[in-house]
Design brief:
six-stranded parallel β-sheet; 15 helices; alpha/beta; Rossmann fold
Length: about 350
């Protein structure tokens, strides 16, 4: 491949797969020109250049369902984005356009399809996003992480590849003694890891705060990622056997230390947790499009690979679930075995293999 455009963004759940795909294409084709397309003002405009790739931002935004008056200029943004997309396709002459979801990928991928350029979509969630659903009809290949995606896409174009996983997670080994020391833990008591996202999850944090004393009394140690919005609120709770972190960069360390994990149910988090293979309680965020985190989590529960606690119930039942699982070796072993069986560590390689086949 000589030239590839990768489009999409808006969240880390879109950006990380995009960069992982780009890295693998670059590894196979060092001279390939890879150009990203995102949305002006969104996080991809910072994260993609930091990963070493050029990006063009489109003046596009999503449809405002709650404040309809804010959509008055959306048609003009769409027209301008389509014009810029045409210019980019003419300039870069890509053999392939990859769309990873988010409204930023709609214009460039749609124009590529109209011009007969090969397009590949990567859908991270068990419930397809609106942009990918629209683009899927004319895509040449659609790489998904969940089964039963023929509800959204033509069945003959679907490839179950899984989602790309961070290299540090793929290389994760057993817990090292210095990691226990780093987080102020001992290696003879169970460890609960709580991660609610980089910004934090108010409901999960309040539930952990309420349960913390009882967890400690029951000999449970806690690594608690509060999110940067909540660190100052909960930092005083840190102490013997309780590690408070606003953000954890070295996730492979805390994953290896954990005996039980409480997490939101974003698609990439689930993919990583399948590879990690630890018993997990998912608390889906209710503040996402089409409640897709609940659908992600239910796909795991259906395979007896995780426990689901709704966000509205987390303050009432999280402690009970954690204590129950910590003391139930049979159940935790079963959960760990089932979630591990769903791992797809070769996702990015499989996706780029499919991309290569499209250009043969």
């Amino acid at each position: 491949m000589d030239s590839v455009i990768i489009s999409g963004g808006g969240t880390g759940g879109h950006i990380f797969p995009a960069v992982a795909i780009a890295d693998e294409i670059k590894r196979r084709y060092p001279n390939c020109n890879i150009h990203f397309v995102g949305a002006l003002g969104r996080m991809e405009m910072e994260k993609v250049p930091a990963a070493g790739y050029a990006i063009t931002g489109l003046p596009i935004s999503g449809f405002q369902r709650k404040q309809l008056w804010k959509n008055w200029n959306l048609p003009f943004k769409i027209i301008r984005s389509l014009i810029i997309s045409n210019q980019l396709l003419k300039k870069h002459k890509p053999q392939l356009v990859v769309g990873v979801g988010g409204y930023a990928s709609a214009a460039i991928t749609k124009r590529a399809q109209a011009k007969g350029i090969k397009t590949l979509l990567q859908e991270q969630n068990g419930y397809a996003g609106m942009t990918n659903k629209i683009l899927g009809k004319n895509a040449d290949a659609i790489c998904v992480a969940y089964e039963n995606m023929s509800r959204f896409f033509p069945v003959d174009k679907i490839h179950i590849t899984g989602n790309p996983i961070r290299e540090s997670i793929l290389k994760m080994g057993v817990a090292k003694p210095e990691w226990y020391t780093k987080y102020g833990l001992s290696n003879d008591k169970p460890v609960l890891l709580v991660v609610g996202g980089s910004l934090g999850a108010r409901s999960i944090n309040k539930a952990v705060e309420s349960a913390l004393d009882i967890l400690i009394e029951n000999g449970v140690q806690v690594i608690w990622q509060t999110g940067k919005n909540y660190q100052h609120t909960y930092q005083k709770k840190a102490g013997d056997g309780v590690s408070i972190q606003n953000f954890i960069k070295e996730m492979h360390e805390v994953y290896s230390l954990a005996d039980l994990i409480v997490s939101r149910a974003g698609a990439l988090s689930i993919s990583e947790l399948c590879y990690v293979g630890k018993p997990t309680i998912f608390v889906p965020s209710p503040n996402v499009a089409e409640d897709h985190q609940t659908k992600n989590a239910l796909a795991m529960v259906d395979k007896k690979a995780a426990v689901l606690v709704s966000d509205s119930e987390v303050n009432n039942v999280l402690l009970e679930k954690v204590i129950g699982l910590i003391n139930d070796n049979v159940r935790t072993t079963e959960l760990a075995m089932h979630i591990k069986s769903l791992a797809k560590p070769n996702a990015v390689n499989d996706i780029v293999d499919i991309a290569e086949n499209l250009n043969q």
